[in-house]
Amino acid sequence: MAIVNTRKAAIVGCGFVGSASAFALMESGLFSELVLIDYDHAKAEGEALDISHGLPFAKPMKIYAGDYIDLADAAIIIVTAGAGQKPGETRLDLVKKNVGIFKSVIPQIAEYNRDAIMLIVANPVDILTYTAIKLSGYPEGKVFGSGTVLDTARFKYLLGEHLGVDNRSVHAFIIGEHGDSEIAAWSSANVSGIPIDSFCEMRGHFRHEESMIKIAETVKNSAYEIIEKKKATYYGIAMSVRRICEAIVRDEKSIMPVSSMQKGNYGIKDVALSMPAIVGKNGVETLVPIELNAEEREALRKSADTLTKVIKGVL
User: Fold this and answer.
1) pLDDT of residue 295
2) pLDDT in tens, 157-174
3) What distance in Å separates the CA atoms of residue 314 and residue 117, rounded to the nearest whole number?
4) Is there a catalytic annotation at residue 178?
């Protein structure tokens, strides 16, 4: 087993998401070394220089453009490489393009480092997480995707706005595919332990079903709306990457809805999708079963079936 530098991270892919993630990690103070890798080396150099010029306002660290050999001692490798989602295009439309890119990228990562945690952020994240697990030969718990961490943040934000309460006091998950078949897990949602319906009524909201449909649809369509207006989404996901890295570096054992290989819970296995999991220094330690009603369980199985069909078509 190689010795990894726990204060070193790498980002493979320096598009909007990769560069925004690099900036978020620079501001976090979590790492003392960050290497940026891109097929366009000059782009990686430019991003590294631009972000480095802000270091006098942050904590000391080394940020530089490198090659795959520079991954050798990285503790966390964040993969954002891939084609971006265009207006009107679903995440699943990206599958063939980005699986092709991963077939080039992942073996090169594994050639130089087999001991890091690999965090997949490129879309469609569930398919690409599964692809990365199969191509890398890494232990399954050490390869996982950002999944519905951002969708869940959007969900909590909207619920906080709806209820007039600090969104950090809202406990709720978006599960399943990071995409059109995602599920809002309403049956386990609460505000500081108070069931969501009870809290809604306490705040003067009684049209529960109507509000639930509207909020869940807004969450699902958030990325499409942002892409339509500004052509790409990157700040929210960059903050999600920072939060996941924080849980890993500090071994927080935080519960997050990351995309990981399923082991048979709810009858779902051999597919990567998002369910709450304990995340720490070794990656995904264990999945956390949450209370789901019959309708949510069925929707989760359908989401898994959707992803399984796509996987069979490309791998």
Assistant:
1) 96
2) 999 999 999 999 999 999
3) 24
4) yes
CATH number of the domain residue 11 falls in: 3.40.50.720
**93 or 277, which is more confident?**
277
The catalytic position among 53, 162, 178, 208 is: 178
Q: Check: CB of residue 95 under 8 Å from CB of residue 103.
A: no
Number of domains in the chain: 2
Residues 60 and 92 in one domain: yes
Return the sign of the alpha-carbon dihedral for residues 300, 193, 214, 158. negative
Main-chain phi, psi angles of 307, to 5 degrees: -70, -40
DSSP state, residue 124: S
Residues paired with residue 190 on neighbouring β-strands, in sequence order? 171, 195
pLDDT at 303: 95
Residue 88 has a pLDDT of 78
C-alpha closest to that of 143 among 239, 238, 71, 78: 78
pLDDT tens digits, 32-49:
999 999 999 999 999 999
141 and 284 share one domain: no
Q: What are the pLDDT digits (tens) for 173-209? A: 999 999 899 999 999 999 999 999 999 999 998 888 8
Burial of 244 (0-12, 13-18, 19+ CB in 10 A): buried
Burial class of residue 42 (count of CB atoms within 10 Å of its CB; 0-12, 13-18, 19+): exposed
Dihedral of CA atoms 8, 14, 20, 23 in degrees, nearest 10, equals 40
The domain containing residue 239 runs over which residues?
A: 149-314
Question: Which residue in this structure is represented by tokens 């909020």?
Answer: 215
- Cα-based torsion angle of the residue sequence 28, 29, 32, 34 in order, rounded to the nearest 10 degrees: 10
